[in-house]
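Thread: Modeling a multi-component assembly for a lab meeting

Hi all, long-time lurker, first post. My supervisor asked me to bring a structural picture of a complex we are working on to next week's group meeting, and I have zero experience with this. I have the sequence lines for every component (279 residues in total). Could someone generate the structure of the whole assembly? Inputs are pasted exactly as I received them:
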Amino acid sequence: MKSYCYIDGQIKKLNQAMLPVTDLSILRGFGVFDFLRIYNQKPFRLADHFDRLINSAKLMNLDVPVSLDDLDKIIKNLLVKNKLTEASIKIVLTGGESDDGISLKSQTSHFFILMDDLCDMPSSVFKKGAKLITYNHQRVIPGAKNSNYIPAVLMQTKKKKAGAVEILYTDNDLVLECATSNFFLVKAGVLITPKNNVLKGITRKVVLEIAKKNKIKIEERDVLVSEIKTADEIFITATNKFICPIVMIDKNKIGDGKVGPISVKLLNLYKDYIAEVCK
Ligand SMILES: Cc1ncc(COP(=O)(O)O)c(C=O)c1O
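Re: Modeling a multi-component assembly
Sure thing. I ran the full set together rather than chain by chain. Output:
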């Protein structure tokens, strides 16, 4: 993490940023956040990330204390202070201070922004493809990027042992999303992604826009676990993972076990899009 952060109206040294121990984020894991990347001093799809933060907060009865314009200015000041042009940032809105340790109290949330270097996956993952392991779980209030990542944290050891990049959440017969990414499947040239009970990722949104522009057919709908075995290609999307091709899920080989052409095409178009909007 970089030395300077923003908290409640001020830029501070990271080791001087404090939260009260009565905050519901600490006592109950109740809060929301968002995560985005900055290229060439330009926050990528900031308005989308801000809208999602507002929506996450609304779903949790919290209020975001800044406007999109404020946020843009804060990020730019923080970039200068940390002497960065490329960065990743985490924007956090806490549940706020509570009198009885469980009830929300309005206007007591704390709002902070942490900055770090960009963190990319190794290039071999994009060439050879990666593995997922599955876990039956549906996130609480899935439409909100809330701070409850308990299963994700607990499953990290198992994930690493299996040599996987992500944990794919299934809900009985349905595929939902990964612990920190969205899920896509390609079948007979059609791009299919779960529609319900998932966090609507910004990368997911951009991929759907790019696919539409390039005349690739799209289906946003419920996806059955059984469709994994007959998929031609699978990939996951997330801010830090871009479009990450998946060639194995648990013990099942996906398609011919190699990275598929639609995954490659979309990854290249996605990279071109970033270069274009952040030049
Ligand atoms: C649960 C979950 N789903 C999907 C995503 C992907 O979202 P994005 O593309 O905005 O990074 C994330 C990102 O962290 C996530 O936590």
